[in-house]
Amino acid sequence: MTWETGLDYSMSHRFTIDYAADYDFIKGVYEALYPANPHFGLDDILALLKQRPDLYALNADLAGVNWYRNHLDELKTVDAGQTKEKSN
Q1: DSSP letter string over 3-54?
Q2: What is the pTM of this model?
Q3: Which phi and psi angles does 30 have, rounded to 5°?
Q4: Which percentage of the chain shows pLDDT scores above 70?
Q5: Paired strand residues for 2
Q6: Cα 65–70–75 angle (5° rounding)?
Q7: Mean pLDDT throughout 38-50?
Q8: How far apart (Å, rounded) are the C-alpha atoms in residues 41 and 79?
């Protein structure tokens, strides 16, 4: 993830949900920030993580990890016949 400052957080932070630890991280961030600021953004999250290293640690060991690299054998191609089109 590259922030508008030009800094790249993709190897130091993880803002996706592929693993249970990712869910725990996002849940913790949401519970900490949303009640006081429903419109929180990345700056708010980064400030929170400086104050709460326990939240950062929840999925820090997964920073830079791509789920698909460890599950290539599970990936499948889906064709149009396996999807449902939204009717108008």
Answers
A1: -TTS-B-TTT---S-SSHHHHHHHHHHHHHHTTT-TT--HHHHHHHHHH-HH
A2: 0.68
A3: -60, -50
A4: 76
A5: 8
A6: 120
A7: 94
A8: 36
The per-residue b/e assignment along 3-31, b for 16 or more CB within 10 angstroms, e otherwise, is eeeeeebeeebbeeebbebbeebbebbee
> 10 Å Cβ neighbour count for 52?
14
Rounded Cα distance between 22 and 14, Å, is 8
Strand partners, 8: 2
The CA-based diameter of the chain, rounded to the nearest angstrom, is 49
Task: Determine the Cα–Cα distance for residues 9 and 25; give it in Å rounded to an integer.
Answer: 16
pLDDT bin (cut points 50, 70, 90) of residue 64 is confident
- Say which amino acid occupies 56: Y
pLDDT band of 50, cuts 50, 70, 90: very high
